[in-house]
Amino acid sequence: MSQMPFVNPDPSDKDSEPFVETDPTGRYGRYSELLGSGAVKKVYRAFDQEEGIEVAWNQVKLRNFCDDPTMVDRLYSEVRLLRSLTNKNIIALYSVWRDDQRNTLNFITEVCTSGDLREYRKRHRHVSMKALKKWSKQILKGLNYLHLHDPCIIHRDLNCSNVFVNGNTGQMPFVNPDPSDKDSEPFVETDPTGRYGRYSELLGSGAVKKVYRAFDQEEGIEVAWNQVKLRNFCDDPTMVDRLYSEVRLLRSLTNKNIIALYSVWRDDQRNTLNFITEVCTSGDLREYRKRHRHVSMKALKKWSKQILKGLNYLHLHDPCIIHRDLNCSNVFVNGNTGQVKIGDLGLAAIVGRSHCAHTILGTPEFMAPELYDEDYTELVDIYSFGMCLLEMVTLEIPYSECDNVAKIYKKVCSGVRPAALNKVKDPEVKAFIEKCLAQPRARPSAAELLKDPFFDEIVDDDENDDCSSSHQ
Questions:
Q1: What is the three-class DSSP state of 130?
Q2: What's the farthest any 2 CA atoms get from each other in the chain?
Q3: What average pLDDT does the chain have?
Q4: Among 342, 359, 345, 351, which residue's Cα sits nearest to residue 318?
Q5: What is the pLDDT of residue 91?
Q6: Binding residues for ATP
Q7: DSSP at 113
Q8: Statement: the pTM of the whole predicted model exceeds 0.70
Q9: C-alpha to C-alpha distance for 457 and 460, rounded to whole angstroms
Q10: Residues in the active site (predicted)?
């Protein structure tokens, strides 16, 4: 395992959640939160500081086997064998060790975001036969891998509580339970096709938009239902039409580092614009970074590279798309894979061959100076990206020393850098951020930044498709 320098915040920071214990290498940290427990094992929430991903810390109390010491050795050797398994339908095992002081056997595994299949199926009762067949096929693929393994591995305890689900990644006839079932959570509303159902739980809200938890009954996956109240634009009906057409265009975007848009429709009765998007399991990058404060520079670079890949896709799109409001609260994380995705494209500008836009929009702390001049190109997103990286490294929102927008505007337009930049001690990181904040003519494109030596040690990773690869 390559050792990386860790970006550690002030230990007195009240928002920082302390580790209860760490593994012998110091890579994995265990939190106190219990994810589950059984007769001999407890499973805790944990964090891989090198990869920047959430994991599960499994702990077996060896006193349960005190009458059979050979059983302990056998258990230990079998767990080590399981570490060699690499299949996307088998929970990945990353590390295993015995703690003689605490008399425990510990192993770190991949964590699935939606719990076990039994509970998932209870929560989401309106599921198509197509989705059930998909789940069944994946279980069989996992079993086939185990059975063809040399030596053959027999599970011996397969049941729906031992099959785990990433709910955000998995018209047909629907398998509907008895509607009187008390465990069934009702939909508040459904889309015009009946495919998507909205629950009452609010995932987030903004000035004009609310985001609710929802479910795609055909694919059997959890999604986000975004709802815009059109009364906010009642004085500008052309803005409503423009918003609707731009959101429809965004539906055509297909990139793994851009939040996917699945469906969009206008509800004249409720006077709302609704669109269904992919949901990320760990919220936005700002909150994720606050929760997990001990993160390697390698992980920060991985996140940064994925953001740049998303921007590069938008900027090379025909027509070019400028995000205009990129900040850490608009980048979302799948914490169990380390995958990050750019979202909240509601303020995006779709521009022609000139690549120029002329409207002031965005979050002041992250806005490039030329945005205030109302004459800018997609390079404003690179400036915002530089500010995102600064926040990721320092855990401080740029220009937090300013107590109002006017002071931020004055500093940005006069070229005064945020005070947080002085807290960046690594000269390589500081120089890279400065490149992103340069004047427009000197500012590199996303494609150019992806080729920067800053990312030389970062493998061009498709490991998000097989998250076990980074732990081998």
A1: helix
A2: 78
A3: 85
A4: 351
A5: 92
A6: 110-116
A7: T
A8: yes
A9: 9
A10: 325
